[in-house]
Design a protein that fits this description.
heterodimer, A: 194 residues, alpha/beta, Rossmann fold, two-stranded antiparallel sheet, 9 strands, B: 169 residues, 6-stranded parallel beta sheet
């Protein structure tokens, strides 16, 4: 099990010019470690669709990696998306599934306990799939394992779907739902397409 | 007046002329030939999601990254995708371009009963969302794609054409 803030700090330490899309509770904690023009807060943009948005970005901007920090509850809201990624995800899409087994944002209600997200991704055809035919599904259980594998995940051709079991002991900052249009315009400007 | 239903080949030519880079589309009975035509296009990439809410978010990501996607969607899928349309189009002012298949239209105008409820709610739903939309029922209506495209671009909001008949070759 990985403490989520430690995971976010480790990612921030290695991140350079990648787009980072985050959603739900990660939108509250990622800004504590990162202030980057290519950070994109997907909160309130559509339940369960953060990685779908990331897929679109990755297809549009093949020259840079798109990293999606996604929750397991959100994935359950659009589970068929795994099949879409298995068919269309490009080499530069890295989905980090932060598995906390709960709907943390709305009170921590537990998810159905027996779901195996890595197995679901494999069964959807992600492993050996994606647009490259070289998709990878992995599960990393420790902070050390994440830190050791992150340089490879950022450098090698994907797409990648990585399940990371996480906990959180830190207090969550307040939710900010504001300025959705401004968020998109800021990202487009940073990408040079505004 | 030409036959009912636009030509899939002519619609695709219009997509290409308007510079659409991606078409997000699930096949349905009425748009089957359009789906096949887009799949053969060398310049427009076909993306097939599993459910229509994905289309909205993928298209929003493509647009944020500088591409120009078109979402072809049956009205039933549009109803399913309501939250994603809100969150990825209307709220953040992303100009999603939509081609909405109006299931039940042909039967409704022929006064066949019972009317498909998918027919009943399509236009009221588009109106409730404030999405401007135009009827594209025949080849001579294809220029309405320009109108839809221009409106979406100028308002930076979703806009739609609505198709009521099966596409012809």
């Amino acid at each position: 099990m990985i403490e989520r803030m430690d995971l976010l700090r480790a990612l921030q330490a290695r991140r350079t010019d990648e787009i980072v899309v985050m959603t739900m509770t990660t939108t509250l904690q990622w800004p504590l470690v990162s202030r980057h023009d290519l950070d994109f807060d997907f909160l309130a943009f559509g339940m369960g669709h953060a990685a779908d948005f990331g897929l679109g970005l990755a297809l549009a901007r093949p020259e840079r990696k798109t990293i999606v920090l996604k929750g397991d509850g959100g994935l359950l809201m659009s589970l068929g998306s795994l099949v879409t990624y298995a068919a269309h995800a490009p080499a530069n899409l890295l989905i980090l599934l932060l598995e906390n087994r709960s709907y943390e944002m709305v009170g921590g209600q537990p998810l159905p306990p027996r779901v195996d997200f890595a197995a679901l991704a494999r069964a959807a055809g992600f492993h050996g799939g994606g647009a490259t035919g070289r998709g990878k599904v992995e599960r990393i259980e420790s902070l050390g394992g994440f830190e050791a594998n992150l340089p490879r995940l950022l450098a090698e051709e994907g797409p990648h779907f990585v399940v990371l079991p996480v906990t959180n002991k830190e207090p969550l900052p307040p939710v900010n739902h504001s300025n959705h249009a401004g968020r998109v315009q800021k990202l487009r400007k940073a990408l040079g397409v505004a | 007046m030409s036959e009912r239903g636009a030509s899939a080949a002519k619609a695709l030519a219009k997509f290409e002329a308007l510079g659409f880079t991606h078409v997000l589309m699930l096949p349905d009975s009425e748009s089957r030939l359009l789906y096949d035509a887009v799949g053969r296009s060398p310049s427009v990439r076909l993306i097939t999601p599993c459910r229509e809410g994905e289309s909205m978010a993928i298209a929003a990501g493509l647009w944020a990254g500088g591409k120009k996607p078109l979402i072809v969607i049956q009205c039933t899928g549009l109803m399913e995708a309501g939250d994603a349309l809100r969150g990825c189009g209307l709220g953040p002012r992303i100009p999603l371009r939509l081609m909405v298949g109006w299931r039940g239209y042909a039967g409704a105008i022929a006064s066949k009963k019972p009317t498909d409820s998918a027919y009943t709610y399509t236009e009221p739903l588009l109106s409730a969302w404030g999405i401007p939309h135009w009827h594209l029922m025949r080849d001579e209506d294809l220029p309405l794609l320009d109108t839809m495209d221009q409106t979406a671009g100028e308002t930076s909001l979703p806009a739609a054409v609505v198709t009521g008949f099966t596409f012809r070759p």
